[in-house]
């Protein structure tokens, strides 16, 4: 839904218009902002400006609250998890594209003689350090120690 050619992410609606479009009271919109459920844009005078995406989110919060009986803390967690899933999907999409590009590059080099045992693929080295105090030698693990021995 796009009104007057305005993009879904452009914060243009004042709180009274956003309240009318979402079917909520302006005070409810303020509460949702305070709780971090919806984060409208701000003007230089700190007035709230809502986008169409914000209004759809307000409707979803209201639906989850009234139709599903989920409390606001639960709704906030659901929204956070939905955002995380979206970010992970985007990451998987990019990784898939990189994998396909690497496969294509390997296929283009297919005419070169292969070393015995398979093909060599360049790998960038990285260093990972894991700090786990329980894994250090000489330290008691899982309650084992010098007690009573």
Content-based structural category? mainly alpha
Head-to-tail CA distance between termini: 73 Å
Inertia-based shape: elongated
How do the strands of the widest beta sheet line up side by side?
1-2
Sequence-ordered SSE layout with sheet pairings:
Layout: H1 15-22, H2 26-35, E1 41-42, E2 48-49, H3 52-66, H4 72-108
Helix pairs in contact: 1-3
Description:
With 149 residues, the chain is mainly α. The protein has helices at 15-22, 26-35, 52-66, 72-108, and strands at residues 41-42, 48-49. The chain has a two-stranded antiparallel sheet with strand order 1-2. β1 and β2 (48-49) form a beta hairpin. The longest helix is centred in the middle third of the chain and has 37 residues, at 72-108. The mean pLDDT is 84.
Task: Give me a quick take on this structure.
With 149 residues, the chain is an all-alpha fold. It has four helices and two strands, in the order H-H-E-E-H-H.
Descriptors for this entry?
47% helix, two-stranded antiparallel sheet, mainly alpha, 149 residues
């Amino acid at each position: 839904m796009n009104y007057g050619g305005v993009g879904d992410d452009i914060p243009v609606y004042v709180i009274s218009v956003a309240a009318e479009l979402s079917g909520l009271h302006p005070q409810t919109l303020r509460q949702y902002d305070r709780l971090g459920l919806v984060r409208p844009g701000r003007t230089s005078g700190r007035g709230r400006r809502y986008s169409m995406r914000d209004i759809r989110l307000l409707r979803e919060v209201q639906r989850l609250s009234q139709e599903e009986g989920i409390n606001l803390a639960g709704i906030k967690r659901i929204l956070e998890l939905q955002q995380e899933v979206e970010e992970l999907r985007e990451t998987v999409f990019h990784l898939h594209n990189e994998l396909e590009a690497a496969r294509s590059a390997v296929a283009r080099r297919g005419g070169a003689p292969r070393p015995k045992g398979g093909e060599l693929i360049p790998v960038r080295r990285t260093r990972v350090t894991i700090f786990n105090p329980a894994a250090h030698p000489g330290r008691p693990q899982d309650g084992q120690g010098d007690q009573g021995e």
